[in-house]
Amino acid sequence: MNNEKTQAELVIDGMADVFTLATTGFEEFYQEAGEKKSGDSSKSASSGDSSTSASSGDYSKSAASGYSSTSASSGYYSTSAASGCSSTSAASGDSSTSASSGYSSTSASSGYYSKSAASGDYSTSASSGYSSKSASSGYSSTSASSGYYSKSAASGDYSTSASSGYSSKSASSGYYSTSASSGNSSTSASSGYYSKSAASGDSSTSASSGYYSKSAASGDYSTSASSGYYSTSAASAYGSAASALGYRAAVSGDMGNLLMASEYVVENGKHKPVGGKADLVDGEKLKPNCWYIVEGGEWVEIDLSDGVFTRVIAIKGNVKKVKADNGDVLYVVRDENGTTAHGKTIKEARESLVYKYVAEFDGELPKETTGAEWIGIYRAVTGACAQGVQMFVEAAGHDLSKTYTVAQIVEMTQGQYGAEKFTEKAKG
């Protein structure tokens, strides 16, 4: 049984903490609301720099205006608004509304039909509840919405948008933006260079536009589409389809999925469309879970490991023989964790792979193990980069196949990055 996660699931897992981060720290605001102003249809207003406003009760309202202002409202149909740099707004209750405007502003709303909106650089917006909505606008903005029919939208460079729930929608616009949506019939769209879009659930839809953008959809009858140079589109599950439009735009899918890709050529320094192909993944012409582009009117299998574009020559086990644009023949090795490395020979690729591995560390250092295993453990404990560790090992001439004790590793790494942290860990 294949337990590997799909492209869509990997993107969504990577954004699982978006909603948690967006709502962190609002408990004290709700508590403050109960202490300052309480009662049905209650109102609370505060104006001034660093001002605070809190209201608790059905139909309650809370408003705060000023730099570093804070506004909190708790109760059915409650409303909370805060305006000013570093402002914060929180509303809890059915049909509640929360709005915050200003640099580094934060807005959170929890409850049925709740709404949350934050506008400003580094702003954050979070909404939880059936039919909830969340919107955030600004550089590095974050928007998260959880609940049936929920919607999430974020606009701005480096923005992030996540939505979870049946028929949920997520949209993100801006360079390096990310959009993820989970739930049957969910929709996810992302626009911008290097943007990512992922949708998970039956009949889900994912679309991504921009150079090097990525789109992935997982679920029966789901669809994935990407547009832009070197963009990728992946689909998985029964009856799904993936399409990619642009120069060297690539597609991938499960057995039986429909793949569609365009072909572009370079003429006079410009990219010109000349055709395309559409076929089902049948295991022969098109293999499942492999990347393809169209060149010369034919499907060409490619490899995108580590963001390096190469054409596949042959595959044997976990080793690929590939060819780069400059004509170099390389080997790509993949381990059981999905980590890959390139090399001019298989041996070189495997040696390089050792330095990229980060061990799944459970908190207890082994008394002794091989040098290759110690590299993964050391990186997991200290956060040392692969290149730095490789340079150290090669300069010292250590034998990675040899067994070393933890005391030996502590001694060897003195003066290196993370040595103090590793030594403390070794002391227990």
Q: How many strand segments? A: 34
The helix/strand class is alpha/beta
Share of helix, binned: 10-25%
Q: Order of strands across the widest beta sheet?
A: 1-3-5-7-9-11-13-15-17-19-21-23-25-26
- What is the arithmetic mean of pLDDT? 82
| Distance, first to last CA | 39 Å
Task: Describe the protein in words.
With 428 residues, this protein is of the alpha/beta class. It has four domains: 10-181, no CATH class; 201-303; 320-356, no CATH class; 368-427, no CATH class. Helix content is 17%, strand content 42%. It is built from eight helices and 34 strands. Strands 1-3-5-7-9-11-13-15-17-19-21-23-25-26 form a 14-stranded mixed sheet, with no helix packed on it. Strands 2-4-6-8-10-12-14-16-18-20-22-24 form a twelve-stranded parallel sheet. It has a six-stranded antiparallel sheet with strand order 27-28-29-30-31-32. The longest helix is centred in the C-terminal third of the chain and has 12 residues, at 371-382.
Brief description of this entry?
By secondary structure, the protein is α/β, with parallel strands linked by helices.
Task: Name its key features.
428 residues; 14-stranded mixed beta sheet; 4 domains
Please give the structural blueprint.
Blueprint: H1 7-14, H2 18-23, H3 27-36, E1 43-47, E2 52-56, E3 61-65, E4 70-74, E5 79-83, E6 88-92, E7 97-101, E8 106-110, E9 115-119, E10 124-128, E11 133-137, E12 142-146, E13 151-155, E14 160-164, E15 169-173, E16 178-182, E17 187-191, E18 196-200, E19 205-209, E20 214-218, E21 223-227, E22 232-236, E23 241-245, E24 250-253, E25 258-267, E26 270-280, E27 291-295, E28 298-303, E29 310-316, E30 319-323, E31 329-334, E32 340-343, H4 346-356, E33 368-370, H5 371-382, H6 386-396, E34 403-405, H7 406-412, H8 419-427
Parallel strand pairs: 1-3, 2-4, 3-5, 4-6, 5-7, 6-8, 7-9, 8-10, 9-11, 10-12, 11-13, 12-14, 13-15, 14-16, 15-17, 16-18, 17-19, 18-20, 19-21, 20-22, 21-23, 22-24, 23-25
Antiparallel strand pairs: 25-26, 27-28, 28-29, 29-30, 30-31, 31-32, 33-34
